[in-house]
Request: fold
Amino acid sequence: MPQELTIVRPDDWHLHVRDGAALRAVVPHSARQFGRAIVMPNLRPPVVTVEQALAYRDRVLAAVPEGVAFEPLMTLYLTDTTPPAEMRRAREAGIVAIKLYPAGATTHSDAGVTDLRQVAATLAAAEKEGIVLLVHGEVTDPAVDVFDREAIFIERHLLQLRRDFPALKIVLEHVTTKEGAQYVAEAGPATAATITAHHLLYNRNALFSGGLRPHYYCLPVLKREEHRRALVAAATSGSDRFFLGTDSAPHPAALKEHASGCAGCYTAFSALELYAEAFEAAGALDRLEHFASRAGPKFYGLAPNATTVTLKKLAWTLPDALPFGDAELKPLRAGETLAWRLAA
Ligand code: NCD
Ligand code: ZN
Reply:
């Protein structure tokens, strides 16, 4: 077993960094590990215009520690009323993607899309301008079991979306099921998926082991073991269309340890170490660089980062909590030991 692994500096293709003091608390954690990150637009109010995205970009950059190179890649939050012309402005401003949240699917998604027919002209413009569509692939129909929402989204919406806009680059974000992984594997070169570290490491038992474990609650929710295995197979397959996206989603600890706890796992603090653990367990450490550092840039038409990072097999204990503005932030696995550590 290797004790040390040096890879091209990875990128995080799905990240939540919030705003204000929370943003300043978390951005340094991502910037330490990743060269770039796709920054999610689900602020309150959401980031819906190019001007808002550029102003948000400046706030993210202002939180990057001195001497660290970290490039936020910005996204727009797609609403029923996003004008098609915003896609051209987005491309000209260097905004890379739009995010489709079905209204009500997850944290801060109430401004999301109510009906895909509403946004057809905007998606056509995105296709034309080369703006990537990032999809939170879950139906919101309350009659659908929460564990089935991703698979049903593919059947009811993604298949048609793919047919309607054949050249639109689509990323099925934080894929969590074997149906999702299989769909993406067979969908052709314009369709990809991000996979989180927590969905590679855990199945839904983690939510209930020894009591209710709110820090393992995220959306899409953790699934059965057979799904976790399918995700590990996809991530370690060497495919160009499965790549790293942490979906690290910080919430104040008090709002996670709550009667109606927020969805989101904070993994950015030790993201790369968590992925290394998952890849090592699969006997596929040699595939980590492709998944973390090469497949994503290739899909987005960018060059891989020019620098490297080194991971060492060196046990260390995560802090119990981190500062988060006025609140506390509990990283996934707080107070527990990790086997891999990113060298300074
Ligand atoms: C995300 C958040 O908190 O912003 N939560 C989550 O559980 N993943 C939203 C999202 O990506 O669904
Ligand atoms: Zn997310």
About this structure: The longest strand covers residues 308-317.
